[in-house]
Amino acid sequence: MKILQVSNRVPWPLNEGGTIGIYNYTRAFSELGHEVTLYCLDGIKHNTPVDEALEELGKYATVLIHPIDTDVVMEEALKHLLRNESYNVSRFYNSVFEQELRELLQNNTYDVVQLEGTFVGPYLPIIKTNHNGLVALRMHNVEYEIWERLAHNEKFFFKKIYLKKLAKQLKAYESDIIRQVDIVVTVTNDDAAKFKLLNPTGNYLTIPAGIDLREWQYSPSNSVDKWYHIGSMEWHANAEAVNWYLDDIHPLMLKGNNDYSFHLAGKGLNTEQFSNHRNIVLNDNVPRAFDFVKECDVCIVPLKSGSGIRLKILEAMAAGKLVVSTTIGAQGIDYIPRKHLLIADSPAEFRTIYDELKNGLIDYKAIISSARKLIENLYSTEVLATEQISNYSRIKK
What we know:
The chain is an alpha/beta fold.
């Protein structure tokens, strides 16, 4: 099968969940014997090492990368607000990229074009005009839901109103694009259910984010003191989560306790912003996520917004790390509380879990063992990619 993936980001380096999610399936499709072309927009602000990306991604696909400036321009944001159009989306439109995509489709025949998320939606018309095969839309999140939750959590009145408006625009846009494709691929059943409310007659398939078990080797911890968070701070939901943790939870964890430490890593991390916190270790970027994770003990996911599935939870489970997450952070994962991970939705609950772990009231070794088995059975990339291709073949035009 010949597959064209169209993405609003370059899936390299592997330093955030969305990037990893795209990369894992590009590689899996290739290793399953399919011919893959990967056509990416590259936001200038990301400072992508393009030569390195071409070399790594070129092992699995024919790769095309087009730079684009996606920085927010206030004048344009105001114009879109007045026109009631989604500026979140239109920032990813580029006429040169569109023309190159048209030429690519006119000169090649693909069995499947897979769009990687909401923000490549502006290219759907050109794809449908120049492509006769299957058009799939892989939705890594329900974007409008993220912005609804951000609006709900926002305390400043005028910003809350603005975020609500952005969420409403995104909801209308996502409702439109899911009607234009042959199949919508979501990463959780919860996400699929939300899209079905927008378009009940659509064709939906749930394929979770996959884990490469060759990369994420089982390295179980023998302690519960080194808590960590890894994720891009350029994603608003992560920034919100980390700020909440450091403002309200981290100080509580430190009270009467000298063993606990918090290790923070991710793209876009402002080390100066958090340097005044006690018992914190900052890593603004890590070359290989697994090397960082295997040296820690407890993965925390204190998301208050978010949507989709958190790849960092699946990776932690695969690596033998205990996960403590909010309910929102763990959504979409087929887990049983206290069997595969622990849930905490308030600062007090985070601290209570730590005290119970230290006092031997929670068998964390049994939890991390069960979690690894869950990943092996349900979240292996190779198994999931095979299922996805099988479904594409079934409905291929």
